[in-house]
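Q: Give me the 3D complex with adenosine-5'-triphosphate.
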Amino acid sequence: MRLEVDITGKAFRNAAGGTQDVLAPIKFALQSGEVGVLIGPSGCGKSTMLRILLGLDRDFHGTIARPPEARIGMVFQEPRLLPWRSVEQNVRLAAPGISDAKLSELFRILELEAHRSHFPGELSLGLARRVALARAFAVEPDLLVLDEPLASLDDALAGRLRDEIATLVASRPVMTLLVTHSIDDAIRLGDRLFFLSPRPARIVAEVPIGIPRDTRGEAEIAAIKADLARRTQGDRAERDVS
Ligand SMILES: Nc1ncnc2c1ncn2[C@@H]1O[C@H](COP(=O)(O)OP(=O)(O)OP(=O)(O)O)[C@@H](O)[C@H]1O
Ligand SMILES: [Mg+2]
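A: Here is the predicted complex, encoded as structure tokens.
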């Protein structure tokens, strides 16, 4: 399976009748088994791009090629749970065929067992985000889209969930697109990093990570980080002299 994104432009109309360009031309493709990471300043257009490639916003220029049969798992930036349904019902509604064993395993991994019968209004933001992750994983997605899924979690839990995302991604052929502001998450989870410009977003650098995810130890991660820092310093120096 393959996702091909070829956006030539996206603008929003504002209340005053003017338009605001949000996306510049953006082109990339993602294969099954690959994790692409989008990193860019707040407001540059990342969530807008995700909505476009999921088919939730059709008001743009360009094309998106996504296998029509692809099952999609999505974690929005806001957890977007149904407030009148319990945690368990929220997940079951997304994945009606899920077995009890699979559901229990997901709740165990995401440390949600004690919250099965709670309603979204009773959850902290971090808990609600975990439910949104459970819901995305429950559908056994072919395309997994994660918009800052580890925000508002403490470091220890974020680290555990990051490992769980890595395990899920390794367990079946899934195309994953992750938005994060954390270079650490990007390096630990990503196969290709896309650095975006301020609005209107375009890809200013595409950085492949050559070392397979499961062999990236702390030393490799530190080396990749140092290499990235050198690159961005180089880019900055280039801008300063031009
Ligand atoms: N429905 C909308 N109508 C008008 N403008 C919008 C709409 N949605 C987003 N925008 C504007 O488009 C720009 C990009 O928003 P978007 O949410 O895609 O940014 P982002 O990169 O996801 O930011 P963040 O990192 O803060 O989540 C912002 O200037 C935002 O105000
Ligand atoms: Mg966003």
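A quick observation: The domain at 2-71+141-241 is CATH 3.40.50.300 (Rossmann fold).
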